[in-house]
């Protein structure tokens, strides 16, 4: 215990209007009269109540680099603080879905309710720092039968009426135990609030990603349906050419196989599309199909989600993320719990009392001379607890070590997430440009091969190969475009985009 106890009484109580010499208190003015003694006792109690054994909180140094890696370029045209999500996601249908999700999502409701729970817990803990006064009105009546009393042979009937204001077990917080618990409860409340903000940002990003994925699957399914129709026409043409003796059975089987492959791809994409619609319903919190007032959506090429966000220095960006703030508040709570665990080793003074009026009859309850009071201070000093307090202190210190590690890990994960997304922002743009150019080239090649095949210059195998390459290139372009848009959505969350109620109104 000596590793955290103050070295002297002055260290414990701070500025007390008494001094000590050689371990003995020197307070000559306290002996003048009873009034001075009372005043000094009150001053001592007030001073002691301001003491705290909670370690001084210091934010751990962020275990990350001072700048983003060279491959993660932080430059951008827009500051994240000035970009509300309505402006970042211009698709009106997506905006409507996000607004509905922020109102109806069940997980978000749970997170919001947890804020109310943590706020109430903080209120309960804060109430322990002030006296709790109750008004008591009661009647006590008893009858002692004859022969049961050692003082009289007659039956004894007694009654008493009381009205009083009572103080119930108020702790003088000399060592800051109650204050530390209150501080920990407040930090837990703030951590819950920050966690809810982090969940809102994640919900917005997840819903945008689900919407974009659904749009990708719809466009890919439409492309597969168009490809199946084109291959069906090719199969019919090949069958006709076979009947005329121009094409062989092998050509027909190749055309039929290509058609069946396109049908299978269309069925697979339609299955994935249905699953994506179910996911979107879950995130929104209601069936999207029943939302009649939703505007029409945009295609992937029309989304215009420009990830041109400016990412400042890592310390400026990451310390504003709500998940990092939540981890720090949990660390503050763990630090405060150490102070409460330390204070458990020291004496606790509890005050119980009441003041009011009492009488043997109800009519005389408020007569002159019926005043009554009681005052019952109690001091409790731990004597033997089989190591319980020491174990509680060890638990509190271990939990702080865990909280520090979790805080540092959260920052490291946030650094990695932002760095990856900054790199993806540039590389996905390059990849999409190349993939789209490939799709355009393969489409032109397909038209050229089909024209050559129509005049008998190209064979059927060249047509099938061109069809497969064009279809794969167009599907790949859609996938890369959706990946780029999803990365932009995740970057908005990673940089702690704005999602407050004021910003939702477009301020």
Name a few traits of the molecule.
disordered N terminus; four-stranded antiparallel sheet; 8 strands; alpha+beta; about 500 residues; disordered C terminus
Walk me through what this model shows:
With 507 residues, the chain is α+β, with helices and mostly antiparallel strands. The protein has a domain at 1-48. Helix content is 58%, strand content 12%. The chain is built from twelve helices and eight strands. Strands 4-5-7-8 form a four-stranded antiparallel β-sheet, with no helix packed on it. A hairpin with a 2-residue loop joins strand 1 and strand 2. Helix 6 runs antiparallel to helix 7 (249-284) and helix 7 (249-284) packs parallel to helix 11 (460-494). The longest helix has 67 residues, at 177-243. It is elongated and about 135 Å long. The two termini are 55 Å apart. The relative contact order is 0.15. The model is unreliable at 1-48 and 501-507 (pLDDT under 50).
Query: What composes the largest sheet?
Result: 4 strands, antiparallel
Provide the gyration radius in Å: 38 Å
Total strand count, please? Answer: 8
Termini separation: 55 Å
Structural class by helix and strand composition: alpha+beta
Record the strand order, biggest sheet: 4-5-7-8
- Note the quaternary state here: single chain
Taken as a percent bin, the fraction of beta residues is 5-15%
What is the typical, i.e. mean, pLDDT?
Answer: 84
Shape: elongated
Order of helices and strands: HEEHEHHHEEHHEHHEEHHH
Q: Which regions are unreliable across 5 or more consecutive residues at pLDDT < 50?
A: 1-48, 501-507
Please bin the fraction of helical residues.
55-70%
How many helices? The count is 12
């Amino acid at each position: 215990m000596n590793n955290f106890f103050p070295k002297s009484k002055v260290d414990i109580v701070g500025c007390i209007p008494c001094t000590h010499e050689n371990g003995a208190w020197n307070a000559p003015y306290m002996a003048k009269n009873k009034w001075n003694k009372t005043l000094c006792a009150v001053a001592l109690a007030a001073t002691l109540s301001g003491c705290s054994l909670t370690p001084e909180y210091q934010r751990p140094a962020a275990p990350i680099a001072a700048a983003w890696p060279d491959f993660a370029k932080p430059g951008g045209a827009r500051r994240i603080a000035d970009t509300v999500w309505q402006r970042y996601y211009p698709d009106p249908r997506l905006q409507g879905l996000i607004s509905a999700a922020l109102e109806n999502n069940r997980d978000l409701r749970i997170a919001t309710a947890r804020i109310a729970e943590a706020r109430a817990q903080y209120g309960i803990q804060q109430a322990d720092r002030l006296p709790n006064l109750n008004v008591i009105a009661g009647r006590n009546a008893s009858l002692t039968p004859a022969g049961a009393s050692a003082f009289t042979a007659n039956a004894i009937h007694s009654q008493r009426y009381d009205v009083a204001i009572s103080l119930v077990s108020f702790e003088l917080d000399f060592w800051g135990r109650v204050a530390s618990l209150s501080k920990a409860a407040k930090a837990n409340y703030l951590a819950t609030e920050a966690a809810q903000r982090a969940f809102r940002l994640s919900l917005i990003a997840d819903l945008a990603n689900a919407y974009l994925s659904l749009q990708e699957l719809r466009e890919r399914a439409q492309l597969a349906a168009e490809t199946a129709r084109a291959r069906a026409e090719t199969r019919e043409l090949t069958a006709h050419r076979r009947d005329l003796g121009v094409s062989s059975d092998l050509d027909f089987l190749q055309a039929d196989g290509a058609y069946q492959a396109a049908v299978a791809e269309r069925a697979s994409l339609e299955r994935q599309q249905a699953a994506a619609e179910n996911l979107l319903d879950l995130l929104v919190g209601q069936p999207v199909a029943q939302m009649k007032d939703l505007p029409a959506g945009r295609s992937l090429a029309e989304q215009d989600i420009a990830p041109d966000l400016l990412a400042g220095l890592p310390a400026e960006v990451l310390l504003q993320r709500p998940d990092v703030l939540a981890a720090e508040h949990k660390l503050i709570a763990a630090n405060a719990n150490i102070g409460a665990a330390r204070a458990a080793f020291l004496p606790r003074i509890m005050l119980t009392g009441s003041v009011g009026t009492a009488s043997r009859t109800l009519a005389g309850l408020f007569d002159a001379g019926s005043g009554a009071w009681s005052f019952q201070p109690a001091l409790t000093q731990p004597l033997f607890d089989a190591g319980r307090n020491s174990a509680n202190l060890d638990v509190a210190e271990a939990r702080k070590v865990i909280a520090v590690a979790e805080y540092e890990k959260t920052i490291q994960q946030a650094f990695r997430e932002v760095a990856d997304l900054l790199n993806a922002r540039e590389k996905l743009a390059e990849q999409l440009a190349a993939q789209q150019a490939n799709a355009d080239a393969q489409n032109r090649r397909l038209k050229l091969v089909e024209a050559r095949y129509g005049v008998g210059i190209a064979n059927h195998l060249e047509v099938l190969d061109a069809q497969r390459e064009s279809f794969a290139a167009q599907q790949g372009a859609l996938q890369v475009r959706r990946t780029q848009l999803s990365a932009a959505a995740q970057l908005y969350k990673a940089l702690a985009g704005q999602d407050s109620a004021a910003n939702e109104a477009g301020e």
